Amino acid sequence: AQKVTQAQTEISVVEKEDVTLDCVYETRDTTYYLFWYKQPPSGELVFLIRRNSFDEQNEISGRYSWNFQKSTSSFNFTITASQVVDSAVYFCALSEAGYGGATNKLIFGTGTLLAVQP
Amino acid sequence: GAGVSQSPRYKVAKRGQDVALRCDPISGHVSLFWYQQALGQGPEFLTYFQNEAQLDKSGLPSDRFFAERPEGSVSTLKIQRTQQEDSAVYLCASSSDRVGSYEQYFGPGTRLTVT
User: In the A/B pair of chains, how many CB contacts fall below 8 A?
Assistant: First the structure.
């Protein structure tokens, strides 16, 4: 069975601090995808990144970076120099490959609420 | 271009009433998903369409829940005889069928409150 665990329920930091959100996943599939979504107070889920299981290169996009390690089944997300606008709930999600009509439904973690204080 | 839209944004229903929630996916997106998000939880999968075909409805919690996408575009999620436990945000997402493009784009959701 597929499962995503986000052990951190809430994190509070002061602006300009770096913060890492943890994500651990379980799957028996050899090909799968990992995602991070942001859900601000407005409620709409915003896609941040997708990672393929066969590509373990870390990725950086501005203040955001992601560390994917298959050996520990983790896909952690770091925000550098956090800002108040980063305050939101962040979800990690997992899906199977979805070839040939198979459902690539997302399995979400329970989310981490990040509060960035000014 | 336009994103995924959902209507209504808020719905209050009395217990036992039927409700219908609408989703307009991104134009050209083949795949459409419905999720249910309870307060303080992550979204949970309900059902999946590829064009007009409902390929997976394993997440629908009971036979009171029904979804359709008759022309392969707009989708409707219907809940019959609503119960208090149906109170949640219902999210719709769509994605392209291009190989390697599996990210799902979400609408703003419909918040359903059953009183």
Answer: 60
